[in-house]
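Appendix B: complex inputs.
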Amino acid sequence: MKALLRRKNLRWLWILLAVVASGILTVALGSLKHFQPYNYVQLALDGLRAGSIYALMAMGFVVVYSVTGIINFAQGEFVMLGAMITLTVDGLDLPLPPALKLIVSIVAGVLLTTAVGALMERLTIYPARRSAPVTLIIITIGVTIILRAVALLIWGADPHVLPAFTTLALEDRIFRIGDVTIQAQSLWIWGTLAAILVLLYLFLQRSLIGKALRACAVNRRGAQLMGINPSRMSLLSFALAAALGAIGGIVLGPVTRPIYDMGVMLGLRGFVAAILGGLLSVPGVVVGGLLLGVVENLAAGVTYPAFKSAVAFVILIALLLFRPQGILGGGEKPAEEA
Amino acid sequence: MNADRELLLDMTDLRKDFEGLMAVFDVSFPVRRGEIVSLIGPNGAGKTTIFNLITGVLPATSGSVRYRGRELRGLRPHQINALGLARTFQNVRLFGNMTVLENVMVGRHARTRYGALSTAFRLPAARRAEREIRERAMRELARVGLEPKAGEGSLSLPFGQQRLLEIARALATEPSLLLLDEAGSGLNGAEKDDLGRLIRSLRGSGITILLVEHDIPFVMGLSDRVVVLEHGVLIADGTPAQVQGDPRVIAAYLGEEVGGKC
Amino acid sequence: MQTRRIPANTVGLVVFALVVFALGAVDLVRPFGLRFSDLTGRVVTLDTMIRIGILTIVVVGLNLLMGYAGQISLGQAGFYALGAYASAILSTLAARHGILPGISDAWWWPWLAMLAGMGLTGLFAYLVGRPILRLKGNYLAMATLGLGFIINIFSAEFPSITGGNDGLTEIPRLRIGEFLLWPMQRYYFLVWGAAVLVILVALNIVNSRIGRALRAIHTGETAAATCGVDTERAKVQALVISAMMASLAGSLYAHFQSAVSPNPFGFTTSVELVTMAAVGGLSSVWGAPFGVATLYVIGDLIKSRMEKILPLQGGGYELILYGLLLVLIMIFLPSGVTAGGMDALRRLRRRRRPDAGEQTA
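Resulting structure:
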């Protein structure tokens, strides 16, 4: 017993050491660029903004993975679709006041993307539900390609615009605290994340369907014996993941200019966040997403901007090699035996 | 007499703890060269777990397993196999994507070797080695009586013959100690007789056998020694006669029959 | 029966080689003034055939890794890139940096570079493979994905060596002594000669000790281990082999295109490679050339026809096709077109001769 305790403490000690070491390294590199404290805060805040989107995406991964055991490569495309559909509807000439039009567009974006998610499950996952993991992975990749290609056809290769929620225009309101600037949209993003967390919690813990979903995630066979239909749960999980992704894309839209291939890098970031959090725990992946956003932005800020993408992948590889069950949350180790 | 024979396998206080579920608790028993030892016990007693611990498929929590003096704990399955231990599986794990002969040929993997260049261009060294592998594999098939089926898909065999194929594959690895996990399960009377004969002939050719079994009469007639497990604990180790009369063994099995299985 | 299959493959390989070389000879000899593309109604050109040949080499390796060893790789384009860049960088040492002027522009230098590239890529695969191949399924997929991306990002980040985003150009053509392996009509034979050789090696591997070990690992890793197979080592070997094949293809690409850049080696390419492997059939080495050819030809066809029918903005119809094909084949024909086709043939044959005995798997 004592031996076990000693081992657990040692692990946290290593993590703590690693954090302190990276912190020192960051400040050292930053001082080369003459960073002031506010620079770090700014980088961290901007990172938290991106991280919130990663968190939303990671939640989508968790929902699908825990219920079906599938890693849905198309999660990033749900984000893209949410943003694109919303901005398209918002760009239409509708006889509505701008605020109302935006709300309608958002609803349309979420609903339509959810429909796409559900369709994806019915048409591609359900028929192959008994296939090997490799096959399912390739199928979700195939869907990703289709969605992206269709997006390219419909919306072209140019970036589009979604107006900021606060001003309903391209220019967003900016708040200043000392030397640090915060876009109003960032508040929308954080607020949405918080709201989603609450709603998701209520849904999963309090509603009957939510409990059924959780039951399926914990023990599929058992849930089946209790009368829960696993294929319907699978459908629900994909729809829910699509909705989560869409919402993430919509609140992100005004900050980055939505483009047909925005799903690729976002999807991969979301996946890294999910792995950080253990792939099975919602709070874990949320923390994972926020952490990833901050680390990524700080690292890129003190070195080269191009390293931003590399950071996510290096973390990914490191995690997969040393701790695939994630750092936070009670993730599961990949099975010992097929 | 028995004590003079070489100690082939020596298990000491072997323990396997699955995060709170103690599957195997400080089990110790020896297996001597030339013996046929059977490991029996009610369901869930930990018999297959012990096999998995010995062959390196599962890591032990504590204790030691020595094979001819060499500690097996920490070695990987293929290393343990190279030392001379081979096994079959309770649920018959054949390579379904290969023929009967190819399955047995896999067993020769560690015993023959030829280089990358020979493989890539099928040089004479490779061809010669392949011929040897094939011949040796055919011989093992003949030993279990499956020679005529060499070219068929491994999964197309009837169940009893699939079990024999697994044994042939294990034999191809040139074991000194053969672990058979419920090799008799699912076989009918005649097939079991054949299996018993095969096991005895294998012992005759110098292979020591450790069996996990459910069929008590089959075991009692075949074994030199019987080891009984219950809930991961060793409760008896002796000749068939000794074990059959042991009140603890009777209680363990009666408990199961009455339906008192935890 | 096992022994009968080997000669069949040899015959198949010889026929395949003859057909491929004959097609190439058309452009060299120009019988009746015909060109290769005339034979196919201008749908398939010699250029396309060379590209198919190059990708076949990569996909054969990928097939060995995914179909036989059962390991998934979503980053194979990374190894492809390593080979291409190795050849590109080493062959232009004299031209770009003035290093080793007498030696590095000799005719045999690029060939040496090609071999060095294969060696280095193989070494890299070995070092990276040990830890990564301990992962399974999804996790392995993501690790290889990340690997491919990292290679891609790094190839764009060091302009002094790799030419950054613009890449390297003016890569010399290959020569043997004074004989230039150019224009395309000549290069075709080099590429397809290499492809035939690689297919031969792959077939030999499949029927060898290591091939059996890989197939065993695919079906039952634990059982294979208890039979004496060092599973970690075997999986790494499969990765190294596939990496070296990809590297060879990359080198051939570099000398064909005479330029390399990060673009053709991204995630899209990795996915295309997996698609081609899957479409052709993961369970047979022959799936590789057929998968590549099928996707290329259909892709070209769609591209040329669709642009006339639906000139919507953007383009990229072949992407939708890739995606759709991938999904449909994985759902209905998970063992790929070649196996599916052979199954269909077998069924047809059985229907015509109902008295023929039941075929075993």
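Chain B has ten helices and ten strands.
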